[in-house]
From TrEMBL:
Alphabetized PANTHER family for the sequence: ARAC-FAMILY TRANSCRIPTIONAL REGULATOR (PTHR43280), HTH-TYPE TRANSCRIPTIONAL ACTIVATOR RHAS (PTHR43280:SF28)
Lineage: Bacteria, Bacillati, Bacillota, Bacilli, Bacillales
Keyword field: DNA-binding, Transcription, Transcription regulation
Domain of life: Bacteria
A family per Pfam: HTH_18
Methyltransferase is among the record's keywords: no
Domain HTH araC/xylS-type: 194-292
Name listed for the protein in its UniProt record: HTH araC/xylS-type domain-containing protein
Cross-referenced InterPro entries: Homeodomain-like_sf, HTH_AraC, Tscrpt_reg_AraC-type_HTH
Length: 301
């Protein structure tokens, strides 16, 4: 709830930490994103009991009731939200049964919500993740909560939403990686590439060079790029730039944060380079992309 800045404004986004039960989302009509950072136990949902060992992510939609029936030394962060936090055109009905008139950019936003909508081998309710990604997500959630509580400037609603969007983008990448992993037969080769992907996904806001990665992963530049491109069809730097642009594009169409802030957030520290790379991947400048695709302009938010 907005206080001094945007007084009375309601943002359906709520954070809790170390609540040792997962609340009934059906009672409140909301979704829940839970990061279990520490401990182990058993989750129960719909008569099915699933054991887990941290770190894991649990995605719960408004139809599901999930509870921890057995736990040991649990530490967790939870975010409750409504799908309209991602895009004002979304509601619980049309994310489950997508509107045929959704635009391409709305379909891209909808893809970020699939872990809450779909239930399959590709989209289980519980995702096991590595420690580095868990720590990065934990940091983003902490920053989101700090922004929600502090409400320090005009952009606090967009900034807090943007941090949730970064989490959802990363989760979509982790799911895509898992698909690639199940299809890859050379496990040793994948292990190194997976470690590099983890680093890129958790350090994209920093300056990253191929020489730095080569030293860090104890492999020459040529071999590193060759193995990486075999599994991703992109060079390391091309993948990094594409990921940065993906995050920037999402924040441009789903928030009103200043373009300069978005540029720095995703790891571009030179305006000319950012505009050139963004236009290369989207065929539009950042400002034109926002004018054409930002739903907040159209809705008058």
């Amino acid at each position: 709830m907005g206080r001094e800045v945007h007084p009375g404004y309601r943002l359906p986004l709520y954070f809790t930490e170390n609540e040792f039960s997962i609340e009934d989302t059906q009672t409140y009509g909301r979704w829940s994103f839970v990061l279990i950072e520490k401990g182990s136990g058993i989750l129960s949902c719909g008569g099915l009991q699933t054991p887990f060992t941290s770190p894991v992510i649990v995605c719960i939609n408004e139809h599901e009731y999930v509870k921890i029936v057995v736990s040991s030394d649990i530490s967790m962060k939870s975010v409750y939200f409504d799908p309209l936090v991602v895009n004002s055109k979304f509601n619980f009905e049309n994310v489950h049964y997508p509107h045929p008139n959704f635009s391409d950019t709305e379909e891209q936003d909808l893809y970020l919500l699939q872990p809450f909508v779909r239930r399959s081998l590709e989209y289980p309710r519980i995702f096991t993740i590595d420690t580095a990604n868990a720590q990065h997500i934990s940091k983003l959630l902490w920053q989101m909560n700090h922004t929600l509580v502090a409400q320090s400037d005009f952009n606090w609603p967009c900034r807090s939403r943007s941090l949730l969007l970064e989490v959802l983008i990363l989760l979509s990448k982790l799911i895509d990686q898992e698909k690639s992993l199940t299809e890859e037969k050379d496990a040793d080769k994948w292990d190194r590439v997976n470690d590099i992907l983890i680093y890129l996904h958790t350090h994209y806001s920093n300056k990253i060079s191929l020489n730095e990665l080569s030293r860090m992963f104890h492999v020459n530049r040529t071999t590193l790029n060759h193995q990486f491109s075999q599994l991703t069809n992109l060079s390391v730097i091309d993948y990094l730039i594409k990921y940065r642009v993906q995050i920037a594009a999402t924040l441009l169409r789903d928030t009103l944060l200043p373009i300069s802030e978005i540029m720095e957030r995703v790891g571009f520290h030179n305006t000319t380079h950012f505009w050139r790379m963004f236009k290369k991947h989207t065929e539009l400048s950042p400002s034109s992309y926002r004018k054409q695709n930002c739903w907040m302009y159209a809705s008058g938010e």
